[in-house]
Batch of 4 targets.
Target 1
Amino acid sequence: MGRIDFINQNKRNILALFAGKQYKEAYEKCQELLAMDPTLTDITELKKKIENEIIKTNKNVIKEHINKLKPLWKEEKYEDILRELKKLEFLDPNSMEIKKLFAEAQSLYLKKINTLKEKFLKNEDKKIKELFEKGEDEQRFLDELFYLEKRNPGNKDVLKLSEKYRWLLIDRKIKSKRDLLNSEKFDDIRNFLIQLKKIDEHYSKIKELEDEIKKRELESKIDAKKEFIYKSETNLDTLLKLKKYDKAIQVAEELLNIDKEDKQAKKIIQIAKAKLFNQTNKETVKMIKDAIPKLKQEYRQNKKNFIKI
């Protein structure tokens, strides 16, 4: 078969396919011939004719499918509509009608989702609020919040709702323990704050309480230190007046353990040590003087028991 006969035979085949509305196969045959010889103008024209027919057919298919979507619009099945329009877009990517319908369906779908979301959150809020206001079973209340978060992982609105009620619970517990928080039972307060952190460690009010308690505890220690120093210094004066120098030295050393730079304590230690030394010497001399008469008497009675040097 010669080249011309081959081309003519293929052209007849293309026309037959076109007549049978087998546009895809006819179009592919045109592409094959033009790949072999791009100068075949009659085949080029036939290809354009097939393209126009495909566009026309696709438009009819699109129109037919769009009409079939009407019940879905009434039923508000926007997700299904979007899925079908996406398929139709393949037939005509430039269809303004498809683009318009897609944008409309997308807008209505988002609106529907937001409405359902609001309804869901409203129902959950109502249910949790009832549990919170009853205040009968705190663990059940916390479990409900936990399962709500687990059922909706990553849902920011759910996390926000859960956070709101966790904070409300913490506020209620703080209010109930106000007497404790105002006291100086700092160990008990710290244990209470640990329990609050188990509910939500990120609540800023817990951090504020921790800072407040640390400040008060420090102030309490400073006050206790001042009180100790005041009483100790008063005792020092008394001890010196009573000539209890050893006790004065002991108290002064305790003061220096608290404040190594306590000038008063340093001064008193020096005074007390000097006076204690003098006092001890005087007591020793007195003891010896008091013992001399007795020793002389013993010597007279028992000379042989004494060693002469």
Note: The CA atoms of residues 246 and 276 lie 7 Å apart.
Target 2
Amino acid sequence: MKKSITALAVIVILLLVSVCPAFAEPYNYSFTFTPPFGGSMRWVYPNQYVSGSTPYVDPNGSSAETNYFLTTDYGEIVLATYLLCRVDTTSRRYFTYQQGYGGLNQDYCFAGYPSNVDFNYYQISGIWLP
């Protein structure tokens, strides 16, 4: 009886962890930006489902200023979130969904491009959460 209760408790915990947004894992990204500015937009493939958590980007280290947003699909520039401008540090920055976007059972693509139109070659990586 005691083993059955323990087994049931473990199953319940595993189910909660698998569906609970608080336990959502962030996704990695890595962008390489090569001049010129035209055509420098980068997207992460594939799209990821909204976790229910507050969406954010967290770069690994300082870099050239980069703009980030979540879009509706790979290769698209339809902004599902407001643009995060001039992100250049390792501090986590939070997205805000535009009206009509966000919510569970939707998926989004993470995208970024240099803030400076006259940028030099650089690489940036980090994590993001839709």
Note: The longest strand covers residues 107-114.
Target 3
Amino acid sequence: MMRIGCHILQWGMGIDRKKRYTWDGKIWNRSLEQTLDSVSNCNYEGFECNDSDVTPYFNNPGEFRTIVSSRGLKFVSIWNTLLPKKMASDELQTVNPDLPMSDPGQYAPISISNVDERTVQEDLAEKKHFALKLSELGGGMVTIGGPYMVSENIREEYYEMAGHLLNEIAEEYKKYGIKVSYHPELGTIAQNVRGVDLLFDYADKGLVGLCLETAHLTCAGVDPAEFVERYGPRITHAHMKDVSSDGKFVELGTGIVQFGKIIRALKKVGYNGWLMAELDIPVRSADESARANKVFLDALLKE
């Protein structure tokens, strides 16, 4: 049976314990506790967050677990990037809200120009440390996307290097009972079916799952329902996001993504994981958008 969760991205990503920022660069005085109160009040069963949301709790994982359990929520998954983005350590990643998310210019500023063995080994060491910390926090899945690269810099050997890196990362997480789900995304080496297939020529299909991301796939010209039919039981996670005809991410049911068709395809392949409602920059309050997305998904599952 599919369960409904919420990615807390629409309330922003953690800067520290008291502040968050949204993709449009706005900074909000809002704690993780307040954010999860909203998730709970909107009647979601679980949540997903970004890696920056949990790093403040690395030295006190018990506090994080109490924050989650006291709100009756399940800590479902966390986002992490394969290979570092082209950003300074103190830089906040933002997008241009006036451009469609499908515009390559949204991702060029964070894109790396090449992949080398030194960077791969450094990232593997970082991921091993993160796997240990995530196990202490109670996480059960890590959703990994990337590496971010503009198309003209992508070389065939990068798929092999990234695929082998994914395998080593997934083996490390497996030690702690944590699953890895790869997330195809615009601006990365695997934003469409061709990229996914090239990556999984080297990534172990039995070890590394796939995350269905409905909006990014749609923007890349991929039918999400056909993606489900193509990869079937390899899909281990699902991000439910909508996109308008002009490329802006919007509340579920207000864009062009055919969610009824997607749910039917998921049921057909026997998917019984999480449906994670996601919205990057809400037009109205994050609480209102989250509530609307939950109502939409509830109705969809009843059909």
Note: The chain has a mean pLDDT of 97.
Target 4
Amino acid sequence: MTRKVVGFIIGSILFVALVIVAYENWPQRLPATDASALELVKFCTSDQFANLDESQKLPYVEALMKKGIPTIIAAANEAKLTQDERQRGLENALQAGIQYRWGQHLDNWMQLDPKAKQEYVKKVAAQMPMRPPGINTPGPSDPSRNGRPGARGGRFSDPARHKAFIENMSPDRRAAMAEFMSDLRAARGEK
């Protein structure tokens, strides 16, 4: 073989290798927030969604919630998600919503002077729905909870979600969140 043919073969192999490397490392595109419920539900179960910044996740969660729970359930059924995938999608979406909503409250609160902080806490407490009487008293092993975990927050709140929420914060934000939540509980008359 001539040098020209050998050079062409080596060049072709290198070109194919570069295309494969580029394809494998190319960032995946995010779906549009106005995509179908089916596409959004599948996306919420993915590692790609889980690895997004919290502020990037929220538009997807909001878009899904606007479609309504029956549509989301129908999309999850159509997607033929396993129980684990459904749980992961729910966890991902809930965590994004919690991080974003409480993160906004914390950011607003941290910028205020002490007197304004107390007023802000009262405002947030007034906007929160009241828990039914006794919701804070049963513990995780209480039979009246029908096997649901956690002593507060109902069906979608349990110690693991609270722990994940706190662990995703920087140490200074953790300390501020502890103070904010303590003030919020006091404003609501909770222990």
Note: The chain has one domain: 29-129+146-187.
